[in-house]
Every structure is written in C-alpha cells, then in structure tokens.
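Table S2 (continued). Query chain:
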Amino acid sequence: MKGPRWLNDLTNSVLVQLFKHLPWLAERWAKGHRFVEGKGIPWAPLGKPLRESCIAMVTTAGVHLKSQPPFDMEDPNGDPSFRAFPSDVHAADLTITHKYYDHSAADRDINVVLPIDRLRELRDEGIIGGIAPTLYSFMGHIDGPHLKTLIGETAPEVARHLVQERADAAFLTPA
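Corresponding output:
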C-alpha cells in the first residue's frame, strides 16, 4: 500500500479486524492474491527417537527481544530479515512487531505464537531430548522482491544455524 504511514497502519488495522470478524472476506481477498507455492515437500524423517532429539523453534509472528530492532513495518513488501534470541528467554523480554495480524492474544501470552513454555514442558517431561539454544523469528508478511531474499538468503542462513546448533527437528509456528 502506498500513502502516508498513518493511513497504511489504519488500513492494515481495519483489514485485520474485518478479516477476523468476517472470514468470508478474508477468503475472498486470498482468492485474488498471488502466493508462492513450493515445489515438493521438504521432508526429512527424524533420525532418532523424539525423546533423544533436540527441537528448534521458528516463528513467523514477528517476535523479537525488546532490545532488538523491530521488523520494518514501513516497507509494504515486509521485512525478510530474522531475529535470533536465546531459547531460555523470559516472555517479559519479548515483543511483537507485526501489523498484518491481530496479535492481541499473543501480546498477553507469547505462547499463542511462540509456544516456548509448552516446548520446555515437553523437555522437562522427557518427551523431547532438548531445545535448541536459539529461537528464530521472521515477519510473516513478505512479498515482492523480498521473497527472493527470504528464500535465497535469510531462510537458508537460519537453516545453517539450526544445523550448527545440532537441531534434529524444527517446530514452525505461523501467525
């Protein structure tokens, strides 16, 4: 969208609320929007039992540490960068910078979009072997020229980090 920032922010806020309360409107909008479709399924079987596996978490909810720079909300094509922060983070240290979805519930409980407390419970109960040391967050609204950056640069960079951290699987949470 082009125009003054306040108008773009207002338009996004109104659309989020309309889509929330009128799902048929969101479906109609989606039919007219182009989406990127992947080729094939990037599937790799888990090589060991879950109770021995290190699980990583990646979200597209725009979550980041309050001390980190926010995602760019000025660019109508989104922000293809990512934020990384320790998996032992306290919820009070996190915030969400994303205006393309209603995150009021997640603002009250980050586990709505980044269920780190649930993952910790699974670890503590011995259901999973451990949690990767770093959580990764993207902004889920990426379009236009930034898709190439996301697919060709930032997503592969996060994948390399996950391999270096010896994550056996990644739990992905959309927003």
